[in-house]
Amino acid sequence: GAGVSQTPSNKVTEKGKYVELRCDPISGHTALYWYRQSLGQGPEFLIYFQGTGAADDSGLPNDRFFAVRPEGSVSTLKIQRTERGDSAVYLCASSLGAYNEQFFGPGTRLTVL
Amino acid sequence: RKEVEQDPGPFNVPEGATVAFNCTYSNSASQSFFWYRQDCRKEPKLLMSVYSSGNEDGRFTAQLNRASQYISLLIRDSKLSDSATYLCVVLKAAGNKLTFGGGTRVLVKP
To answer: What is the least distance, in Å, from the CA of B7 to any CA of chain A?
Structure first.
């Protein structure tokens, strides 16, 4: 079956621009997570959705980052006024429910010039 | 101090040999523990969960020491295909966000 998909696979943008990253979770998975992985580091938690609501957004680094999941399926991570330090791989994961195994998508590699 | 710490390696391992490495975690409220595998430029994938009694999955053995707050992974009869980064992951009792270590890189050579 289809796994978690993320688009685009690569995104290059200029400092100060706005970007949107999309995640399509596995069908039927109610929980969705965003992580960020910098070079040579492990993934870091950003935000967790249960259904349409953000159950935990404690990992969002600042108010330039925002994520939505309006219909409880696809999610979009939005970054305003991008900075060079935002360059990383943004990983999305989904699970059947809370505490079930999380399956990761291939990630979006964001480069801010 | 990071919540989950790992030796970044690389561990250079001859094919067929055994390799073992640990990770330490700082939060005693951590409830569940996992090892994930990540290939270069790929997403992390669950390798195995780690149970208090220790558990084995084929050539892989995981151990948990709650008193000393460390987790270990042992790989027997290493294969070239075992070359990857192994991520130590903990889940706290409250909430279900995964906390990852920085990863241990393993290179198996012929």
So the answer is: 12
